[in-house]
Amino acid sequence: MRRHPDTGNSYAVYRRFALLDQEFHDTLARAAGRPLLADAVHRLHAHLHLFRLTSAPGAVGTTIDEHERILDAVVRRNPERAAETMAGHLRSSRVRHRTDTASQETTARPRA
């Protein structure tokens, strides 16, 4: 994840980010030595892709920061911190997605 994707709104930027994001999550799941977790993350690829496509604009930088905190905890061999930062990343991703989805629904509704 030290290879930061560029920022911007082009498909090429999104594609690079999506590939690195997927690689990050796959690598962590395999490194955990938990085959069921690795399999679950692998099976979620299509769902995560849809999630990324509908993520809030500007979320790339925040996501990279969260990934770096997770990676730092793993490199320092601090499993408690790694679990804590991953849980925080998943929570904040969900909040970003819900907030952006809600704003899209409000914008898409016809006005009376």
From TrEMBL:
<feature type="region of interest" description="Disordered">
    <location>
        <begin position="85"/>
        <end position="112"/>
    </location>
</feature>
<dbReference type="InterPro" id="IPR011711">
    <property type="entry name" value="GntR_C"/>
</dbReference>
<protein>
    <recommendedName>
        <fullName>GntR C-terminal domain-containing protein</fullName>
    </recommendedName>
</protein>
<feature type="compositionally biased region" description="Polar residues">
    <location>
        <begin position="101"/>
        <end position="112"/>
    </location>
</feature>
<dbReference type="InterPro" id="IPR008920">
    <property type="entry name" value="TF_FadR/GntR_C"/>
</dbReference>
<keyword id="KW-0804">Transcription</keyword>
<keyword id="KW-0238">DNA-binding</keyword>
<feature type="domain" description="GntR C-terminal">
    <location>
        <begin position="1"/>
        <end position="91"/>
    </location>
</feature>
<keyword id="KW-0805">Transcription regulation</keyword>
<dbReference type="Pfam" id="PF07729">
    <property type="entry name" value="FCD"/>
</dbReference>
